[in-house]
Amino acid sequence: MTEEDLGKKVGIITSYFSKVKVGIIKVESPIKKGDKIRIKGTTTDFEQSIDSMQIDHEEIEKTKKGDEIGLKVKDKVRPNDTVYLQG
Q1: Which sign, positive or negative, has the C-alpha torsion 63, 1, 3, 40?
Q2: What is the dihedral of CA 73, 13, 26, 40, to 10 degrees?
Q3: What is the mean pLDDT for each group of 10 consecutive residues in the chain (87 residues)?
Q4: Kind of pairing, strands 68-72 and 8-17?
Q5: Cα-Cα-Cα-Cα dihedral of 14, 16, 20, 25, to 10°?
Q6: What domains, with CATH codes, occur in the chain?
């Protein structure tokens, strides 16, 4: 599977908090609430819509390049997993 099949790369997972199911993403390209993303890594591979994302515990609607955000995820993610924006 090529990177084009995965969608546009928008960020990298830097850490994961299992108790609250939140992944921290270093944003490389803007994303917004409602976007459909795919998170893929060595053992990670799932799609979800963005329902909740925060910066410093404040809910946000969209990101910009360079932001580090907390994203509620439906499954476990791992550092260095890649986040792609779907179609």
Answers
A1: positive
A2: -80
A3: 77 98 98 98 98 96 98 98 95
A4: unpaired
A5: 20
A6: 3-85 (2.40.30.10)
